[in-house]
Every structure is written in C-alpha cells, then in structure tokens.
Specification:
Largest sheet: none
Order of helices and strands: HHHHH
Structural class: mainly alpha
Number of helices: 5
Radius of gyration: 21 Å
Oligomer: single chain
Distance between the termini: 77 Å
Number of strands: 0
Shape: flat
Amino acid sequence: MNYMKPYSKAYFFRFFFEHIWRAWDLEEENICYTGSLIAARFKLYQDIENGIIPAAVASELRSLVKKALSVRQEIERVEAIAEGEDPDSDIDQRDVVQLIKLHQQMEKLRSRYDSLQDPVLRMLSRDQQDIEWFECQDRRKRDHC
C-alpha cells in the first residue's frame, strides 16, 4: 500500500508555504520559482536549522516573514474594501495612499530579508552593525570622561 503518498504531498506543501514561499512573492506579477530561488531559500532554511546563521539573525528573518504576512493581509483587506465599492464612484484616495504605503513597507521588509539571506550582504550588515556599536561605545566614553 502507498499510504505515505498523501502524507508526503501534504508535508511538502506545508513545508513550501512555511519555508520557501514569502508574502512578497505575491507582489511580483510573474514570480517564477526557479531552481535557484528555491535552492537559495532552502539553503537559508538549512543554515538556520544547523545553527550556521546566528540566532539573532534567524530571529530577525522570522520576524520579517511574520510582519510581511501581516502586511499582505492588510493589503488584501484594503483591496477587498476597494473592490466592494461602487465602480462608478471615485476611488477613495485614502485607500490608494494606504496601499502605496503598505506596498512600500512590504518592499522594505523584502529588502531587509534579502540582505540577511545573502551571506555576503549578511556579513556586510554585521560588519556595519559592529562599526556602529564601536562608534557608539567611543561616543559614550567621550561623553562620560
């Protein structure tokens, strides 16, 4: 009997939506899950699971994904309200402004996620944070002396 097949499909489907798919993927009209995109996201998942990525970075990545899901839900909510309005009436400018802000917020989340996903950019980000931390420590020493 092949009773594992439905379980396998459900498992892979859930895994895809938890670890590969991102809320900002819906922002692109023609998102294509190429081998390189899936491989990069799967490698990130493995690096987090294996402790290669520092816990603080992994936590920030999870936070970005969670925030992006929240922004996506808000975008869908505003779009549903706008679609429900009378087609002959003018589009509510507040809805337009809110959607623009939400899409900008989504892009910022995606940009930060991408910078943490890429090993080189992640290292540069850590180096920049270290520089800022040392500069802050120097300022504190000067101010207290």
